[in-house]
Amino acid sequence: MWVCRLARLFVTSPVQLEATITQVVAEITKKSPSQIAPSANFRSDLGMTSLEHLELLLILESKFNVDVESQTEADSVSCVQSAADFVRRKQSSEA
Question: Which residue range(s) make up the domain with 44?
Answer without folding.
Answer: 2-94
